[in-house]
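Worked example
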Amino acid sequence: MQIPVRCLSCGKVISDKWNEFNERVEEGEDKKEVLDDLGLEKYCCRTIFLTHVDTVEEVAEHEIT
């Protein structure tokens, strides 16, 4: 679904960095460098960014009955 507002482990606000992370990675920048530049140094925050799978479009296809 969507990226969490806060890190699930340490509680740091991370959602405000998600769009910039995606844009820079799509432009070809190294993920490690982008995460470092965004100030995401803890492994828990980095893990959320590196493992997140956006499933909004998949879920939107299904109807609620």
